[in-house]
Amino acid sequence: MGLIEAIILAVLAASTPLLLAATGELVTERAGVLNLGVEGMMIVGAACGFGGAWLSGSIIVGALCGIVAGVLMSLIFALMTLGLAVNQVATGLALTILGIGLSGLIGSRFVGEKISLAPHLYVPGLTDIPLIGRILFGEDAFVYLSLALVIGVWFFLYKTRAGLILRAAGDNHASAHALGYPVLRIRMFAVMFGGACAGLAGAYLPLAYTPFFIPGMTAGRGWIALALVVFASWLPGRLVIGAYLFGAVTILQLHAQGWGVGVPSQLMSALPYLATVIVLVLISRARTGGSTAPAALGTVFVPDR
Amino acid sequence: MQLVLEKRAERSNMIALISPLIAIGMTLVTMSILFAILGKNPITALGVYFVDPLTDSYSLQEIAVKATPLVMIAIGLSFCYLANAWNIGAEGQFLIGAVAGSWLAVKTQGTDAGPWVLPAMLLLGAMGGALYALIPAICKVRFGASEILTSLMLVYVADLFLDYLVRGPWRDPKGFNFPTTAEFDPVATVPVLIEGGRLHLGGIIALVAVAAGAVLLGMTIKGFEIRVVGAAPRAARFGGFNSNQLILLTFAISGALAGMAGIIEVAGPVGHLQPGISPGYGFTAIIVAFLGRLNPVGILIAGLFLALTFIGGEQAQIAMKIPLDVTKVFQGILLFFVLACDSLILYRFKLIFASPKVSSGAH
Amino acid sequence: MRKILIAATTAILATGASLFGASAADKLKVGFIYLGPIGDLGWTYQHDIGRQAVIKEFGDKIETTYLENVSEGPDSERSIEQLARAGNKLIFTTSFGYMEPTLKVAKKYPNVHFEHATGYKRDKNLSTYSGRFYEGRYIQGIIAAKMSKSGVLGYIASFPIPEVISGINATMLGAQTINPNIKVKIIWANTWFDPGKEADAAKALIDQGADIIMQHTDSPAAMQVAAERGKLAFGQDSEMIKFGPKAQLTSTMNNWGPYYIQRVKAELDGTWKSEDFWGGLKSKLVVMAPYTNMPDDVKKLAMETEAAITEGKLQPFKCPIVGQDGKEVECKGGTHLDDGQVLGMNFYVKGIDEKIPGK
């Protein structure tokens, strides 16, 4: 296995949880809801995903548990922000606090336990193709699932009527409501989808990355996913680029150290964040006429009757 | 038939007063159930959380110490949020303020510098925090870059910058290479108010910030502008208010307060600069700002209350062996209930019997 | 609803006050302050195993309490003081960052005894204790050099503090006794604890040609990656064989139990004195996990080295030691570097190509 191939494989794996969580958040935000609780949903997804897989012995059951846990967490958020019109920023942060506590309680039962990781795919013939075989056909299924998910989201948002309505709800909830669309119900589904993705992203860590659960193992990835959505200016295509770029910088800074490149490691670690700020400024600057943010993002909607 | 939320014609002052009580009542019930499930006596546990910390002067002091940075940061954030400027990077501004102020403490270490050092440090801290907050503000005003993202990203940069300083240039030369500066000289230390306790001058500065915030928001034209720009941007434009200028101003204010909170924390309770000086104050303060309904006095109460749950949670760990995670769950649930009940100030539930579509068609 | 509330409130008021008084029996109360969650599988996990050993040893005679996830920032002083106020007479603070807070609280509570791990500031009622983890690393270096085919070792480091630097140096000094040309690639993860990042670092090291992975971070992630890639690795802090049954060579384990038992016993007997304890293989504070996945001759060599260090016949930092700059390091301990030089180590030995970050 060549070094470049190995690096690409590592980048794919490192980017997958970011991509999964960010895809869900992108849909949520497209519907006009800002859920800052991604980290909280992820860590609960990780705890439940590991628990499910450990008790059942099945990765798929684990992944489903992670998804369900994420959805349940997101329903708390939906109840608060959609049902009771509470501020989304505060609710999202509170959701993270709750998630960290819950995951610790759930995970305390599984300390020191180990499962076997999700297997890497093997397609006879295809996986053996030099250079690209392992990359295209040899990672774990979640890697490809996350890409399929982004394509599906892209198709849904831009090629279906339901996607159009969802975006309308995020851009101008009053008009969407006036046209007779159930804005709150649309947003609830979007929030639940975000929760499902975040739960799966969290579960990916113990199921496919490191086969154990440790409190706090998401280590800030939920926040990065949030950043990625804005970085991608709410476009699924850019989200893929952003996630892989972020993953690449993370992996390459480790490799650079191995090659003995003498840069302070703090600067290396800060690079992805600085890069995000700079790229964001450049993108925002190049675009004339304001950002593509969903116009109603983060605002409360209570239908008039 | 369905239950829906409806906007009240005007905010309900009655609910505004009793909603925190309802929320606390609901939290008590929920937590009692959780404690019972965990096999702990709910009444005893709730007593440890809420009552014991209020019964002795030591715990009261500790609550004040814990609340000081939360309140200071949250006051600044309330300015931003009222003006619809989403600064969620107060954590970074806190750290940079700590770094900026510590620079002077490190440079004057071991010299016979006079009592001017501490005031100068506080000033530097505020300036550092303000300048750091202006980065996302300028990116927003000048380039339209989302301040939510840039301010959040800069938190990590600040964290790593501080890390670099205390592991490299500012490391205590006699400290066996551990990542901390030397202990600050007495002239560079925030004095304690009560001998033997930990309550320090920062507590008074936080109270001043609360008072100043209340005056600025409630009694000045700038405060009025801030509230109008946030609540009714269109009206503000017609009124000739410059929203860009207000974004810069509110970011600078909140950065300055966060930065000053940072240097106070370092020169006070910690006593030296090191990694991990903030257990997430900048993020917790966001919740404090909202719990306090973006109102300075409300923020003071909310900050003290959240501090109470931290102290109570620790005493519960000691007295009843209740895991820390339960405290986190407890805080989360409490926040949800408080925020949810607050919603009833502006909205009320209404039972409607026909589907909304039909009723709107009939008009 | 209101009635329930009132009833609950009165009940709370009635019971609240009597809480701390209730358990003030004649049991010795022992407190612990932990940096991480007790389930971190690493540093804090091992300290908690030590605490459990204390409970097992003394049973009803003592009562232990711990506070977990205590950050090293402004909260730690309060947490320590809370333990002191709750009647704990012996308090262990288990991370370097608690040094100043422990010192401050110790001055305030002269009748309470404190023990601070890995620090260097002491007082009449404040002891320090730590482990000579470098002794284990020296053995690991020897095994690594024997087992490596590529001659390149991969080292995942957390932060460039002396404990980590001396670990890297001890590894290299051990390895150089077998293969003078051995190379080490070091990746600073800049964290004690981020399983994903530790795994990424392990992958990067393996991809760059390292075939033995060692770590100075806390989670078993690197062990698991090595196992998956068919490479060999050393555990850290705790037994990690479960995560790499075919990969783990050994693990340098922190075994705090005996020390905690000894100190609690001293406290019970009234013989507690302020001390500086720096225990290694001899005092069993550092324990090697069984030597596995290696041929018998390597195993024998490892065991001989372990025995020699335990008996004091072999000093990992035996003079002469040549630094990275080619100059010989001053030998303050006569035949080997003295403890101060090891505790404050801030240079790489010859044979390491990289530079210490921040230097």
Can you write the helix and strand succession of chain C as a string? HHEHEHEHEEHEHEHEHEEHEEHH
Mean pLDDT of chain A: 87
The most extensive interface, with participating residues per chain, is: A-B, 55 and 55 residues
Q: Based on CA inertia axes, which overall geometry of chain A fits?
A: globular
Q: What is the N-to-C order of secondary-structure elements of chain A (H for helix, E for strand)?
A: HHHHHHHHHHHH
* Protein structure class of chain C: alpha/beta
Please state the average pLDDT score of chain C.
89
- Strand percent estimate of chain A: under 5%
Low-confidence stretches of chain C: 1-24
Number of alpha- plus pi-helical segments of chain C = 12
N→C terminal distance of chain A: 64 Å
Q: What's the main sheet of chain C like?
A: 6 strands, parallel
Poorly predicted runs of chain A are none
Rg of chain A computed from alpha carbons, rounded to a whole number of angstroms: 20 Å
Number of beta-strand segments of chain C: 12
Cα distance, first to last residue of chain C? 65 Å
Name the beta content range of chain C.
Answer: 15-25%
Globally, the shape of chain C reads globular
Oligomer: heterotrimer
Q: Could you please describe the fold and organization of this structure?
A:
The complex is a heterotrimer of chains A (305), B (363) and C (359). By secondary structure, chain A is an all-alpha fold. In chain A, 71% of the residues lie in helices and 0% in strands. With 363 residues, chain B is mostly helical. The longest helix of chain B is centred in the C-terminal third of the chain and has 28 residues. In chain C, α3 packs across α10. The chains are: A mainly alpha (305), B mainly alpha (363), C alpha/beta (359). At the B-C interface, α1, α2, α3, α6 and α10 of B face α1, β2 and α4 of C.
